[in-house]
Design a protein that fits this description.
The complex is a heterodimer of chains A (464) and B (101).
Chain A lengths: L2 H20 L4 H26 L4 H23 L5 H25 L7 E2 L2 E2 L1 H29 L12 H22 L2 H19 L7 H23 L2 H25 L3 H6 L6 H8 L10 H9 L3 E6 L1 H6 L2 H13 L3 E6 L9 H8 L7 E3 H4 L8 E5 L8 H4 L18 E6 L19 E5 L2 H11 L1
Parallel strand pairs in A: 3-4, 3-6, 4-5, 6-7, 7-8
Antiparallel strand pairs in A: 1-2
Helix pairs in contact in A: 1-2, 1-9, 4-5, 4-8, 5-6, 5-7, 5-8, 6-7, 8-9, 12-18, 14-18
Chain B lengths: L4 H21 L6 H12 L3 H9 L9 H30 L7
Helix pairs in contact in B: 2-4, 3-4
The chains are: A alpha/beta (464), B mainly alpha (101).
Amino acid sequence: MSANLSAIFYLISGVLFILALRGLSSPETSRQGNFFGILGMIIAISVTFLSVGNFSSGFIYVIIFLLIGGLIGAFIAYKIPMTAMPELVAGFHSLVGLAAVFVAISAFLNPEAFNLGSPGNIKLGSLIEMSIGASVGAITFSGSVIAFLKLQGIMSGSPITFKGQHPLNALILISIIVLTYLLCSTQSSNLFWILLAVSFLIGFLLIIPIGGADMPVVISMLNSYSGWAAAGIGFTLENSALIITGALVGSSGAILSYIMCKGMNRSFFNVILGGFGSTEQSSSTTNKEQKPVKSGNAEDAAFLMKNASSVIIVPGYGMAVAQAQHALREMVDTLKKNGIKVTYAIHPVAGRMPGHMNVLLAEANVPYDEVFELEEINNDFANADVAFVIGANDVTNPVAKTDPQSPIYGMPVLDVEKCKSVLFVKRSLSPGYAGIDNDLFYRENTLMLFADAKKMTEDITKNI
Amino acid sequence: MEIDPFIFRLSIFILSIFIGYYVVWSVTPSLHTPLMSVTNAISSVIIVGAIIAALAGNSESIFNTSNIFGFLAISLAAINIFGGFLVTQRMLQMYKKKKDK
């Protein structure tokens, strides 16, 4: 196949990838979008086979390795529970990063195969692109592995900070630039390996100081990195499908990071530099014992909801941890049978990744037109009878609107307190991730339900 | 004077960033998780580089170091391609409207 013809096909698959993302603008068109994505991938892979045109023994091995990976991927995709989606996405990002590194290594060792010159004499432009692709790929890999371990609970979700962390990171980032420069001027393969090692290290160091609830930003950021890595390799390989995709994914991740940061009213750098709320925690624990808290049981909650005419559900990460989404849906079904209007309110940073709660509710068969975003539903709280907060905390804290001293001041929150009564399902009075006390717990109209989210929801259903 | 092909690729890249910007802002927030898994799947189009790397050289020495890295990258990318598209499909199947029930 001629180079020009294959370039046209790569362009077509790039366009199909754009349509795949475009399809996600509404759930109706999304499945078609995914189909476009698959089609684009099939075209890209087939064209590559045809343009290499080497149907020797190696071809068989390519198919074998492709199938091995494919089977593993398909197996994971069918087995993974929806609550584990953040871990899965983090894990997948690490694979994109590592694949980019491997392709870059291969191109560095055997540049002739890619028309990039000969070993030790690689074209300058290609070498720069290759170094960027490899370095960003390595950062994506080690960063995603840490994010995966934190989400999976293998590694503590709390921020790991040490003295001199920021100067050290800055030093390493500068050394990456210096190494890239030296590599391009000397073509030394030793420098290439050192560059990779240092990039792996910085990916690791960048993610360890970031805490669990900031994971939505981290995952989005790593998503963006994996895109830039792919684009870097795309320049090396002079492949437009890869360049287009890399740019799409890179900007997609960047936009998601921005949306997540805005949802927390924090700057990107504030999140990335890590270590949030560690100082506030001690001060808030001292004075919280004195304030009276009304707590109730499942019967009280059932009574309140049965007599309501509209209920708004506010799910958070705690619902995912307790796997309470199905029990919740059953509760809502029972309420609806009693003629009560039920809607769901989702905060942008609820859960551990963008859109996490929406997927869980969809899994529990909640129709997506009953689920609303913060701006759409926030005015409705004043007219609702009951707000049922399950596994959320900081995103409902009215302090964000009233106390300029608070670390979460200015963060958009759900106006839960405007409801006639608030039901708060929670294990204990412990503060949320930001380490600050939630005023809501002590309000006149709040009833605390201390229990496991799933068990409490089931008990309420029985009592309605 | 002839224009370096790099400039053309750079143009594609910059314009694609803009396309990405506008397309992603139009994605509904409730589909942000499928957005991440599908971007994951499509960024694994890096497999084209892996295939070229794996098949480089003559057929007698198909397991050179550089080939081996190519083969490994094929498997990694394939996990992502199959896993990413299938899990996206699985998620999208779950999004239902009220009247469908």
